[in-house]
Amino acid sequence: MCVSFFTHGGEQRDNLLNTKWGNMRSNFTQAFIKILRFGLATLALVPSGFSVAQEELSQLNTVLDIESLFRPIEPQPIHGETAIELLEKLQGKHYASIEINDRFSSQLFDKYMDSLDGSHLYFLRSDVDELSAFRYTLDDALEAGNVTPGFEIYNRYYKRVLERLIYAINRVENAIPEMDFSVDEYITIDREEAPYAASLAELDEFWRKRIKNSVLSLKLTGDTGEEIQEKLSKRYRNQLSQVLKTNERDIFQAYLSDVAKVVDPHTDYFSPRDSENFNMQLSLSLQGIGAQLTTDEEYTKVVELITGGPAERGSELKAGDRIIGIGQGTDGDIEDVVGMRLDDVVSQIRGEKGTVVRLSVIPAGAVSESSATVVSITRDTVKLEDQSAKSQVLEFSYNEEDFKIGVVSLPTFYFDFEAAARGEEDFKSSTRDVRRLLEDLKSQAVDAVIMDLRNNGGGSLSEANQLVGLFIDTGPTVQIRYSGIRNGFTRSFGDNDPEVTYAGPLAVLVNRTSASASEIFAGAIQDYQRGIVLGGQTFGKGTVQEIIPMDFGQVKVTRSKFYRISGASTQHRGVIPDITFPDFYDAYDDIGESSLDGALPWDTVRPVEYRLYHSISAKLPQLQKQHEERVDESPDFNYLVDQIDRTRRYRERDQISLNEAKVKAERERNRREEFDAENMRRFLKGLPMREWESVDAEGDDALAAKDDVGDMTADDDGRATESDEIEEEDPLLLESGRILADLIFLNGPRLSAIDRLPSNQ
Question: Which residues are designated catalytic?
Answer without folding.
Answer: 516, 527, 541
